[in-house]
Design brief:
The complex is a heterodimer of chains A (about 325) and B (about 250). By secondary structure, chain A is mainly α. In chain A, about 75% of the residues lie in helices and about 0% in strands. In chain B, a hairpin with a 2-residue loop joins strand 9 and strand 10. Chains A and B meet through helix 8 and helix 9 of A and helix 2 and helix 3 of B.
C-alpha cells in the first residue's frame, strides 16, 4: 500500500513549485503577472512534454492546438452569452469545447503526420499550423483575420466586476489547475504500460514494433492528450484572460519554439523537467527584458546553447542521475 | 506434427534486387535451425519478412496454423515470435529491468500483463540469464556481449515459441560462444522454443547448436539438411571458399 502511494511522491516537488508560485503571486505586491506567466510556461511545457518528451517527436505546429483551444473558449462565450442563467457554465462549455476541438485537430493531424518520422514529421507539422491559420483567415471562418473580440459578451454574462476578476485572477488559477492535471497525467503515463510503450518507441521505434508494441496507437494517444491539454491551457490563458483573439497572434510559431526550449532545457520526458525549464526560461526572459530591453534574444540564444551543451539531458535529466541512490530519488523523475 | 513456421515460395524484392528468392521452409516446434550464408545472401531480409518488418511480394507465411503473411509486426510478436538484432537495439536510456519488462508487457498474447507483473517476469528472466548485477543500469551502458544477453532476455520474456537470433554470437570470444550456445540450448529445450540462429561465418555457433542448417545464397535456399551434411555439401564449400582454380591443386 505504502509503495503504491510512494509512486506519486514525484508529484510533491511539482505541486510544491506551483503552490509557491501561487503564494508569492498572491502575497507579494506586483508579482501576480510574473507568476502567472511562469505558470503558463509550466503548463504548456507540461503538456508538450507528454508528446515531445515521451515520444521524441518534435511537433513544430504545436501552437495550432493552443490557437484552436482559444477559439473553443471564444466561440462558447461569443455565441452563448445571450442564454440567461448559464453563468459559469459558459466557461465550462468553453473548456470542453477547447479540449474537443484541439483533440479533433490532433486526430486529423496525427492520422497523417504521425506516419512520418524525424525531420519529415517536424516539417509536415509546420505546414499544418500555417495552413490552418490561412484557412481560417482566407475562408473567413470564425471571424477570419479579424479574429473574435468577445470582451463585450463576457462582461454581459458576468458583469464588469466579476468579469475583470475572472480575467485577472481566475484565468490564471485555472491555468495552475491545468498544469497540475498535466503533471498528474504525465506521471500516470510514466507508471503505466503506455509509459513503457512510449519509452520504447522513443528509443527505437522498429525494435518496439517487433516486440509487440502498436506504436501508432501509443503515439496518437500521447499526441491527443498533449494537444487537448495545451488547448485547455490556451483557452484559459489566452481566451479567458484576454477576451479577444487574433489568428496571427495565436498561431504564432514562436510559442511552439518556446515550448520546445522549455522541455529540452528542463529535461525531455521527465516529470519535473517542464517546471524547471519553464522557471529558467521564464525568469531569464523576464529579467533580460527588464535589464537590457531589446537585447534579450541576443543574450538569450547563447545562454540556451550553453545550457543545452552542459546539460544535454536537461537540468532535471542530470539531476535525476545525481540523486540516484539517495533519498531524493523517489521524488525526482 | 504440424510445423510451427511454414514459408511457401516467399519472395521479397527491393526494386530490381531479389533479396529473398522463392524460399520455402518448415520449422517444427522446438527445433534448432541454423541459417547460414555469406554477407548479402538475404538472411536478415528473411528474418524481417518472418517477423513482419517487410511484407513479401509473393508467397505465404504460416505461423502456428495461422496465415501471417500480411500481419503487422506488432501483432506477430505476441503470437510467439521473438527476435534479437545483429547490432543490439536496446532501449538505451531505460534500465535493463525495464527493457526486459517491455518484452513481457507487450510481447505476450493475452495482452493483459500489467506493469508490476511484467517487472516480476523481468526479474525472473534477469536471474535466468545472469544479469542481476546490471539490472538497474541503463541498457545503453552495457558491454556489447551484455547487450546481446539482454536482448535474448527481452525476447525470452515474451514467452516465444520461435526465437529468431540475428548473429547473436558475432564478436564474441570462442569460450563465450560455447557458453552462450549451451545456455540458449538449455533454456530453449526447457521452454520448448524453436530457435533459428542466423550466422554469417561463426560456424562454431552453428555446429554447436543447430540440428539442421539452411544455406542461403543470393536470396535462394540452396541447401536444407542436417548440420554436418549441410556444411560438407560441395555447394556450401564453394560459396564460402570459392571455386578452386582449374588445374591447380590447393
Amino acid at each position: 500500500m505504502s509503495s503504491k502511494i510512494a509512486r506519486y511522491y514525484p508529484l510533491i516537488p511539482v505541486y510544491a513549485a506551483y503552490l509557491i508560485l501561487f503564494l508569492i503571486g498572491r502575497n507579494v505586491t506586483g508579482m501576480w503577472q510574473l507568476m502567472a506567466m511562469l505558470v503558463f510556461y509550466c503548463a504548456i511545457g507540461q503538456a508538450f512534454n507528454i508528446f515531445l518528451g515521451m515520444t521524441g517527436y518534435v511537433d513544430f505546429g504545436y501552437v495550432a492546438f493552443m490557437g484552436i483551444g482559444t477559439y473553443g473558449m471564444a466561440l462558447s462565450i461569443s455565441h452563448l452569452y445571450q442564454i440567461e442563467g448559464l453563468g459559469m457554465w459558459v466557461i465550462l462549455i468553453g473548456a470542453v469545447l477547447a479540449i474537443l476541438m484541439s483533440g479533433a485537430l490532433s486526430v486529423a493531424v496525427g492520422a497523417v503526420a504521425l506516419r512520418l518520422r524525424g525531420a519529415y514529421f517536424a516539417i509536415a507539422t509546420i505546414g499544418v499550423n500555417e495552413g490552418f491559420r490561412f484557412l481560417i483567415e482566407g475562408a473567413k471562418i470564425w471571424g477570419g483575420s479579424e479574429g473574435i473580440i468577445f470582451s463585450g459578451q463576457f462582461t454581459h454574462i458576468f458583469g464588469r466586476k466579476t468579469a475583470s476578476l475572472i480575467s485577472t485572477t481566475w484565468a490564471d488559477i485555472f491555468v495552475i489547475l491545468v498544469a497540475c492535471l498535466g503533471a498528474f497525467v504525465t506521471l500516470r503515463f510514466m507508471l503505466g504500460k503506455i509509459g513503457y510503450a512510449l519509452m520504447a518507441l522513443r528509443e527505437d521505434e522498429d525494435a518496439a514494433k517487433v516486440m509487440g508494441i502498436n506504436v501508432t496507437k501509443y503515439k496518437i494517444i500521447a499526441f491527443i492528450t498533449s494537444a487537448s491539454l495545451v488547448g485547455l491551457v490556451a483557452a484559459f490563458a489566452w481566451g479567458l484572460k484576454l477576451t479577444y483573439l487574433f489568428p496571427d497572434e495565436i498561431f504564432d510559431i514562436s510559442y511552439t519554439v518556446e515550448c520546445i526550449i522549455i522541455v529540452l532545457l528542463g529535461g525531455a520526458g521527465t516529470l519535473l523537467g517542464p517546471v524547471a525549464g519553464a522557471l529558467i526560461y521564464g525568469l531569464s526572459k523576464y529579467w533580460l527584458t527588464i535589464i537590457l530591453p531589446g537585447f534579450q534574444l541576443l543574450i538569450f540564444a547563447p545562454i540556451i546553447i550553453v545550457i543545452v551543451v552542459a546539460f544535454p539531458e536537461g537540468v532535471v535529466g542530470v539531476l535525476k542521475r545525481r540523486v540516484r541512490g539517495t533519498v531524493l530519488e523517489k521524488f525526482i523523475v | 506434427m504440424a510445423p510451427l513456421l511454414r514459408l511457401e515460395n516467399v519472395t521479397k524484392r527491393f526494386g530490381g534486387l531479389v533479396a529473398v528468392d522463392r524460399v520455402s521452409l518448415e520449422i517444427d516446434p522446438g527445433e534448432f535451425i541454423g541459417i547460414v550464408g555469406p554477407n548479402g545472401s538475404g538472411k536478415t531480409t528473411l528474418f524481417n519478412v518472418i517477423n513482419g518488418v517487410y511484407f513479401p511480394e509473393e508467397g505465404t507465411i504460416v505461423f502456428d496454423g495461422r496465415d501471417i503473411t500480411r500481419l503487422q509486426p506488432y501483432k506477430r510478436a505476441p503470437l510467439g515470435i521473438g527476435r534479437t538484432f545483429q547490432i543490439p537495439r536496446p532501449f538505451a536510456s531505460a534500465t535493463v529491468r525495464e527493457n526486459i519488462a517491455v518484452g513481457a508487457m507487450f510481447g505476450t498474447l493475452s495482452g493483459r500483463v500489467g506493469v508490476d507483473e511484467s517487472l516480476e517476469i523481468a526479474d525472473q528472466t534477469i536471474e535466468r540469464v545472469g544479469l542481476q548485477e546490471h539490472k538497474d543500469k541503463a541498457a545503453g551502458s552495457l558491454t556489447p556481449v551484455e547487450k546481446k544477453l539482454m536482448e535474448i532476455a527481452r525476447a525470452l520474456a515474451m514467452k516465444p515459441k520461435l526465437l529468431l537470433m540475428d548473429e547473436a554470437m558475432a564478436g564474441m570470444h570462442p569460450n563465450d560462444i560455447d557458453q552462450m550456445v549451451a545456455f540458449i540450448k538449455e533454456i530453449a529445450q526447457e521452454e520448448k522454443i524453436a530457435v533459428v540462429s542466423m550466422v554469417e561465418h561463426i560456424m562454431r555457433a552453428v555446429v554447436g547448436m543447430a540440428e539442421r542448417v539452411i544455406v542461403l545464397h543470393q536470396g535462394a535456399k540452396i541447401v536444407d539438411a542436417p548440420t554436418k551434411e549441410a556444411l560438407e555439401n560441395p555447394k556450401v564449400v564453394e560459396i564460402y571458399l570459392g571455386h578452386p582454380p582449374e588445374g591447380q591443386g590447393c
